Every structure is written in structure tokens, then in C-alpha cells.
Amino acid sequence: MNQVTSTLLKAEKTVVVDYPATEVKAAINKVFTIMKSKYAPMKNGVNDIMGTYQFSMQNNLNPAIGDMALESISDNKTKISINVTASYGSVSSNSILASLLNDYLSILTKVLIGESIEQEAADAESSGCIWGIITAIIGFITLLLIFI
Predict the structure, then answer these.
(1) What is the pLDDT of residues 20-69, one digit of tens each?
(2) 3-state secondary structure 7-59
(3) Could you give the CA distance from residue 98 to residue 100 in angstroms, rounded to a whole number?
(4) Pairing mode, if any, of strands 39-47 and 10-17?
(5) How many CB atoms lie within 10 A of CB 124?
(6) pTM summary value
(7) How far, rounded to the nearest angstrom, does the alpha carbon of residue 57 sit from its chain's CA centroid?
(8) Residue 101, Cβ neighbours under 10 Å: how many?
(9) Residue burial 16-29, b: 16+ Cβ < 10 Å; e: rest
(10) What is the rounded distance in angstroms from the CA atom of residue 97 to the CA atom of residue 59?
(11) Are 35 and 128 a contacting pair, CB within 8 Å?
């Protein structure tokens, strides 16, 4: 018998929070709005009615895909199930993916408890800009070496 072994790297976590599903959904959408350069919903990846979300997670050279599902446990409790996998073609490790997952949950927690995430958004913007500049410089040097 031919067995298929999965080599998919991923990080998974399920947590229960003491907030109603409507508040969790609003917090998720707020993260997408404020930190759109780091957490960007996939096309047709947000379904607030079903409580499912698929989004890209940018962390410099480690892009990943987050899949999240919400389940209302009671009026004031929501179960959040999230898994993070490496984007197609990217090289990552389970520890990096777990770190991305925990970073996202930390940001989501701040929004749920009413803390500002503006500093994290600014840090994400400047971090992405630096890597963009570095990538452009490397590309320029490569072109120079090809044509010299």
C-alpha cells in the first residue's frame, strides 16, 4: 500500500476567549484594516457569516497563509481555531510559523482588550519598506553583474 506522507509545515492553535463572536469578528476586521501590509485577507477569504478567514501574513522573508475559524461556544465565549502554513514556494520552519501565529494572536488580543495597535502597524510598515529597499538593491546589483 502506498502511503502519502505530508511534508506541509504548519502551526496550529485553538483558544477560547471570553468575548462574543461578534466582537471577535469586529476585532479581526480591525486588524485587517489597520495592519493591511502585514495581515491581508485573501480574495474571497473573509466570510463573517460562517466565521472563517483566510489571509496572508507577511514577516519579511517568511510569508505565510493564515486560516482561521470561529465558533460561538456561548453568548460570551468564542473558540478561535487558527493554523498557519508557509506560502507556496517559500521556505520556513515550524518555529517561524508558530511565531507568526503567536504574533497574530497577540495583536488580536490587544484589539479585543481595547489597546492600540498603531505602533505595531507603524513597525510593520517600516519593516516592509526596509526589506523592499534591500531587495531592490540586490536586484540592481545582480543586473549590473549580468551586464558587466
Answers:
(1) 999 999 999 999 999 988 899 999 999 999 999 999 998 777 889 999 99
(2) CCCEEEEEEEECCCHHHHHHHHHHHHHHCCCCEEEEEEEEECCCCEEEEEECC
(3) 5
(4) unpaired
(5) 21
(6) 0.77
(7) 3
(8) 21
(9) ebebbbeebbebbe
(10) 10
(11) no
Give the pLDDT score at 129: 53
What is the separation, in whole angstroms, between the first and last Cα of the chain?
A: 55
Helices and strands per DSSP (H, E), number in the chain: 3, 5
Instruction: Using CB atoms within 10 Å of the CB of residue 143, give its burial: 0 to 12 exposed, 13 to 18 middle, 19+ buried.
Output: exposed
Whole-angstrom CA distances from 136 to 126, 131, 132, 139, 143 are: 15, 8, 6, 5, 11
- Average pLDDT taken over every residue of the chain: 85
- Looking from the CA of 148 toward its CB, the CA atoms found within 13 Å total 6
Which amino acid is residue 27, in one-letter code? A
Evaluate whether 107 touches 44 at the Cβ level (below 8 Å). Answer: no
- What is the C-alpha to C-alpha distance for residues 136 and 87, in angstroms, rounded to an integer? 21
